[in-house]
DNA sequence: GCTGTTGCTGACCGACCGGTCAGTCAGTGG
DNA sequence: CCACTGACTGACCGGTCGGTCAGCAACAGC
């Protein structure tokens, strides 16, 4: 009998084997840059320096490998952002500024994970979307909304805007920047595309204070 | 042979034949929802109700078909937005409000085109990104930036923010909404996810007036 | 009649796909 | 020493991929 090909449990933490690690790394890189269908098991095997059959020894099939890559990316990404949201103190506006700046920085540093998750979000079915909202983004988003609510309660932020909307707007600029920065760089007048930190600072300022001139 | 001399072709592009139209429509739907690699020529042929060989009769290969689908999507999308930006009159702020609202509406109505173009933007190489910036988004973006500059010159908008940054922020909310609305719907407190028009109105208001409480 | 030309098709091709299988090899407990 | 195990591999499977090609039906002009 060959090795038992039991399915990897999505909730419990399976064993991160030694040889499987290289496969996961190679697969993450390829899946993130080219997408699921454009990456063959042969390509992953070659990139990982192992035989194709070896991948099937560690993962039951291609989909299971992809899900495992996605799972690790989600947990990694989620943990980093939650950590960032928790530790801060001081005025809410300063905490928001810091978080937004860190968020874009995190996207750019963990580009592969971010791309993988985004790909999943952008083409998810309704059922998948609900799962993503609850198990991947729920905690982070709720934490951010709580922070905004606190800012409203303390009179730092306008209370007549839904806090969730503010959260979305704060993240929208970052995500658009992350997604389109290569194109942005070639648009006229968008020289901020080359400087993420400057973009985040200016965008957050604009959103906080408004772009309309107060008479 | 271009025997159809009775029909004046509006663009320099080749004529969209009768039988080729069905292929283009089927291909656009499939490419938009599943991506290039996940769609086979067999699937396109079946969806279009023709033989696979017929596709190769009208298009030299899969890539050429994809590029043709992309080209028509780009020209269609671009023309609609440019038209919207040109005709308006009145205060700049009102024109911006109207444009942003129409932009999200356009994204949702032409979901397939929008998805196709986004897919291209998000995974474009540097060379492709430059081409997209110059030939697809350049005109629209520049027009929007000009409108913002006019608003700044007339004292309607703050002049200390780069106009291109304002343009990006105005579009960012819409695009994030379009991309993540399925996930958004399941996030706590984001009930605006079900009402695009309301989202756009509130988001634009927030951006125009700022979310910080003015003492 | 014949002769292109055009739109279209079924049959087919080599390459590659995800996945399987028999078997090798190093380690290890008894 | 042996028996067993898990990591690993080359060869191979059926099936599908993008793409080709000879040919058919319809229709024009001669």
Compile the SSE list and pairings.
Two copies of one chain form a homodimer.
Chain A: H1 18-34, H2 41-48, H3 52-58, H4 62-87, H5 92-109, H6 111-122, H7 126-153, H8 163-184, H9 196-209
Helix pairs in contact in A: 1-2, 1-4, 1-6, 2-3, 4-5, 4-6, 4-7, 5-8, 5-9, 7-8, 8-9
The structure holds a DNA duplex (30 and 30 nucleotides).
What would you say this structure looks like, in words?
- Two copies of one chain form a homodimer.
- Chain A has two domains: 18-59, Orthogonal Bundle (Arc Repressor Mutant, subunit A); 74-209, Tetracycline Repressor, domain 2 (Orthogonal Bundle), CATH 1.10.357.10.
- By secondary structure, chain A is mainly alpha-helical.
- Chain A contains nine helices and no strands.
- At the A-B interface, helix 6, helix 7, helix 8 and helix 9 of A face helix 6, helix 7, helix 8 and helix 9 of B.
- Chain A binds a DNA duplex (30 and 30 nucleotides) through helix 3.
Count of alpha and pi helical runs of chain A: 9
Structural class of chain A: mainly alpha
Beta content of chain A: under 5%
CATH class wording of the largest domain in chain A: Mainly Alpha
> Unreliable stretches of chain A, pLDDT < 50, 5 or more residues?
1-13
Helix content, binned percent of chain A:
over 70%
In CATH terms, the superfamily of the largest domain in chain A is: Tetracycline Repressor, domain 2
Biggest sheet descriptor of chain A: none
